[in-house]
Structures are given as structure tokens and as C-alpha cells.
Please model this.
Amino acid sequence: LHALGYHRSAALLEEESRVRLLSPAVCQFRESVLGGQWDAAAERIPALDLNSPDAVAQVKGLILEQKFLELVHDQCVNGALDCLRSELVPALGQQADKVQALAACLMCSRDDDLRARCGWDVGPNAQAARMAARKRLLQDLHALIPPSVLVPDNRLETLLLQAVAAQGATRPGQARKLSREPSSGAEKRPRWNLFEDSEPQGAALPTETVQVLDRHVDEVWTLAFSHNGALLASASKDCQAIIWSVGHLVDAVPRQASGVVRTGSSPASAGGDGTGRRRGGLAGSGAMDVCPGAASSSAEGSSLSAGAEGAGAPCVLRVLAGHADGVTGVAWAPDDSHLLTCGMDTLVKRWEVATGECSHTYARHTDAVTAVAWVPDGHHFVTGSADKTILLWHEGGTVLQSWHGLRVNDLAVGHKGNFVIALCAERRIRLYRLFQSEGSPKLSGVGERTFAESELSTSVTLSRDSRFALVNTHGAELQIWDLEDETLVQRFRGQRQTRFMIRSAFGGPDESYVASGSEDSQVYLWSRQDGSPYAVLPGHSGTVNAVAWNPVHCSMFASASDDHTVRIWGPKADAANGSCRNGGRSHTPLQQ
Model:
């Protein structure tokens, strides 16, 4: 009630119920934190009735970190050094990276640079920024304090939103529009009535194969749709990446005169040798197979027919050859003009989508590069490797920053460019701050957050708003983590994953569903809301290594498999007669 502004109602409720919202000890602790009385706050930690010694250590570490940053901000260098050496180092224990990141704050010469590095508000009012940082510290501390001692903030509003979300679960196209944030003027939220139950509505979900893409000659490890949904990039153990035109939904690449290779085409028409490869190899650093009619249809009203040989069928647009070993990752530039690939050969390559040429090779890692992700500005990107480093690059080839730790299994960059999430060879999910300094992004360990896992995490995918992370684990379980509330909000079981890396995806109307591959050669779909199984889709004959959902056409996703193929999935013919919404835009679903 306080959070909603009903202060007198809250006071009256306390008086009539004779139940205090906060105990005197918790009130004193909050006042100490907001007043910057750090020693008093530390003395009152035992009164919080924390669940474990680890929670006590985390609370103490967060308090000391804020104390240190405020001493640095006040230019009390001696006091800051004493806090770092005698209090923070013993409290943080083995977290050497965080200690080094905090020590680096002592080198900040400008006040706004220090505040940006610390994650404080950058503005003319330093005192307001400090108070805002203390309030954020309280929010972080609330996550560690048992709810029986301290009721979480906005709990009543959360319960109401959960009730609304339960209603929305019966309407997949609207279930994910719910949040505390105000809706934009261009997009009206659905009106909900909690006085009666909502009636279920169906959705045209992709559950049937509409096309098999069989140009690769070895295991296909990963794939990704372009941001405009018109192109699909696949990466394989055969040392190649292929860019496919999926239904020519958007005129994303200029047409050029060339031979055509279509999925399922004959060797004669493909100009090949019957193996699916072009005779004579690939010229230069990349080869090009361009589909005629690629520009003939628009994004709206497009459809894809199973096995079609007309303009609606996918075809090979570019074959990107240049890696000396398997290609482990692909990442589209924010404007879809470039594609990054990384591989087992320790290299990262940047390709021109318009020409298929390799415009730059990045050689700095000393072991397999396991992940690559663009920063939203389109000029920087981040890579992770088995050599136990995370590198922040400028597209020109300069390494701006390196981060050493554990072997990196996967990583992703928040869509606003404010954090990097990394899965390392440990049972933890790590979140690093990404901030702008002197016109360039920088990684910071200050405010680094970790989430403990019960199993080894192998891959991560972010939701469209970057608030939720979909994580695959070796325990044959998918998990959704709320990165703001730092909580595990959903689990998905049924698929098999014990040996290989498998990549999953959010998708469907407003990302209401989750899709994943499996070592039993099937694709699994679940309801995101309650974790219930929706469908198990056969078709592949080997491990399904990755699933990618089209970001524009929510009735299409693709799967990649050890059987050397990529499958495009669409809805059943009797379900593909309506329109599908993603992000408030209407699209026509694919038709079988």
C-alpha cells in the first residue's frame, strides 16, 4: 500500500490489525543504510535473521562496497584504501576480479566517470545520485532478507500482476504485455477484468516442418535469424556458415546476377557435383548464391509453402567459407549489414552480407571461440572463449578490454547495451555492467551480480526486453531467470541434454512460448507462463543443437541438427489462417 501511495490506508491497517510492516530492528537497519551509517548498518545485520552465513557475507559485502565507493566519491583516499584493505578484501574473499574493479575506481579523475563506472546516476546533483544508489542498495539487500522479516517491495502489485498474467496465459498473444512500466501511446494494453475468468484463445504456432535446408555437409551447430526476419544464418562443423533467404520476406540484400542453388535442387541446376557443394570450391573469402525474385515480395502478407520451388522457398544466399575448423557461433549486426562468425580455429570473422566477402579477421584468442555478440551501437562486440577470456572489441580490430576468469560457455549482451551475461565453467551465471566512457563501451566488475546454479549452465538467450534469461543446463532442464529481481521464475523439463551444448529460444506471440532442441532428435515446446509442455516435434534424425525463433514472424522458427540439416517450422494448415503479433506489429503466419 505504501508503494502505491496509500500511506494513510497502510497506517490504518497497521493500527487495526496490530501488525507492524517492519520490525524496529529492520527500521533501524534501513535508516542506517539510507543515512550512510555503515558501521551501524553492519552491527544490525544479525537482527535480520538471514538464512545462511553466505547471505550474511553477501549483505556485509554490499554494504562495504557502497561505503568504499562513497569514500572514493568524497576523495577520502586514505579512508577508501583502509576500507579496501582491512574490510573489503577479507569480506570478498576469493572474488579477486571484483576487488580489482573496485580498486580501479581510485584511478577515476572525473566525478561523472566514477559515477558511470559505479552505476550511479550521472547528473549535476551528486547528492541525489548518492541517495539513489543507497536506495538501489536497499533493493539488492531486500533480495537477501527473508520475506518473513521484510516484505518485498511492491508485493501487492506483484500479486495483482500475477493474477492478470494468469488470465493472460489463456491469451498467448497478450500474456507478455504485462509490466509495471507504462505502455507507449502507439500500443494500447489489453483491458483485463479480474472479476471473471478469461476465455482461452488459440495461436498459430509452428508445429510442422515446411522446409528442410540441406546444404551443409556436417553437423549444424547453431543458427540465428536476422533482425528483420528475412534471413537465416546457420553455422556448421563443416567450417562454413550459410546465409539463407527464408521466403524472401524482406528485400534485405540487393539482387545480383548469379547461379541459383535451392534446397533439394538437382546437381545440374545447382552447378554442383551432387554433394551439395559448388564445383571448384569458393572464390576468395566467401561465395555467393543469390535467389532470383528475392525482392519480389514484401514483409506483410508473405507465406511459405512446404517444398515450394517458387519465390517463396528458402534458398542459399551466401556461403561463408574461411574458417579452418567448425563454426561455433553467428551474430547479426544491429542493421543486418554484417555477420560475425566465431569458430574452433580461435578466430572471429566479420562478413559483408551484401557481397559475402570477409572484411576482417580477428585473431586474439588462443583457444576455441565459443560465443560472439554485438553491442547495440553496431561498432563493438564481445567474444568469449575456452581460453578463459572475455574480450571487448572495436570492429576495426582493437581489443578495448579483456576479462580473465573461467572457460566461457556462452554470453549475450543486453539489448540496451547495459550489461553482458556470461556462463562460465562453473555453476554460476555472471552479469557484468557495460557502460559508456569517453565514447566507448567498457565492462565493469563493480556491481557484478552472480546467480548460483545447481547444474552447469551451457547456453543463454535473452528475452526481447532483456529482463529474462533462458538458460540451458546439463541437468536436462531449462530455466528462466528474472535478471532484475534475481530470481528463478520458471523451469522446463522433458528434453534431453547430458553431453552437448543446446541452444533454446523464446518465441510465439509476445514470446509466450519456449522452444528447445534435444539429444533425442526432437524439438520441444512449452508454455512460458506455467512451464507446461505444449508439443514434442519429430523430424530430425540426430541431436537438435539449436532452435531460433523468427523475431518478426512469430509463426516461424528454425532448428539445427547433427543430421546436417536445418528445418523451417510453420503452423498446421488449419491453424495458419489468422495473423500473429510480435511487438505490437501484425504479421501473417506461414502456411503449410
Notes: Residues 172-180, 182-187, 249-312, 583-592 have pLDDT under 50 and may be disordered.
